[in-house]
Amino acid sequence: MKRAHIWIPKPGSKFQRVQCKECGEESVVYSHVSSIVTCKACGNTLAEPTGSIAKTNGKILGSAD
Ligand SMILES: [Zn+2]
């Protein structure tokens, strides 16, 4: 039986829905990003890596799990 590769997230990590404070566009942002995440609509920075939980620059609407 073949097993699909299962990606195991870091403990405590999650996906969050973040609303861009500039344009209101909603994006799903991983809580432990390793690179800057920008808004796909306006290019505003939504999340920055900090080594642990990302710093988010938008309104967190909730979990996207
Ligand atoms: Zn935006």
Automatic annotation (TrEMBL):
Task: Name the GO terms of the biological process aspect.
Answer: translation
GO MF: structural constituent of ribosome; zinc ion binding
Q: What does the record's cofactor remark say about binding?
A: Binds 1 zinc ion per subunit.
User: What cofactors does this protein use?
Assistant: Zn(2+)
Positions annotated to bind Zn(2+): C20, C23, C39, C42
Q: Which Pfam families match?
A: Ribosomal_S27e
Zinc fingers, C4-type class:
20-42
Report keywords, A-Z: Metal-binding, Ribonucleoprotein, Ribosomal protein, Zinc, Zinc-finger
Superkingdom, according to UniProt? Archaea
- What InterPro entries does the record point to? Ribosomal_eS27, Ribosomal_eS27_Zn-bd_dom_sf, Ribosomal_zn-bd
Q: Is Ribosomal protein there in the keyword field? A: yes
**Subunit details:** Part of the 30S ribosomal subunit.
Q: Which family does it belong to?
A: Belongs to the eukaryotic ribosomal protein eS27 family.
HAMAP family registered for this protein in UniProt: Ribosomal_eS27
Protein name according to UniProt: Small ribosomal subunit protein eS27
Q: What is the lineage of its organism?
A: Archaea, Nitrososphaerota, Nitrososphaeria, Nitrosotaleales, Nitrosotaleaceae
- The gene designation is rps27e
